[in-house]
Amino acid sequence: MARHLYRCPLRWSDMDAFGHVNNVVFLRYLEEARIDFMFRLAPGDGSPSFSGGSVVARHEIDYKWPLVHRHEPVTVESWVSELKHGSLTISYEIKDEDTVYVRASTVVVPYDLAAKRPRRITAEERSFLQKYLDDEKGAVAA
Known about the structure:
The chain is of the alpha+beta class and 142 residues long.
């Protein structure tokens, strides 16, 4: 299983009054990594994958260790932990070599923006996502 790695810079404004990255900011880090994964990496050479839209149905975050501001980026590692006909779950770790700060997951639903309704994952999208699918969980057949 492949994993997507995103180097996310920390901003001075990410800190809260207690001197560490605010809990809400971690959602932004996850979003940046997810956008890089689904909308930069996936489409590749002009592919229409995910260009029709998607919506977030759920976030789940476990905060493991405080992250303080520094100049070095943090790594957001992501992979597909569940792949169904009409949704996928992306799992993440925000970490350094020695420390995991956050473990999280996001349920994403492909969405037809023109029709204003959820849609199924296309064969092309499924083919891309299966490269990042956690082998233990498996996928629902296409």
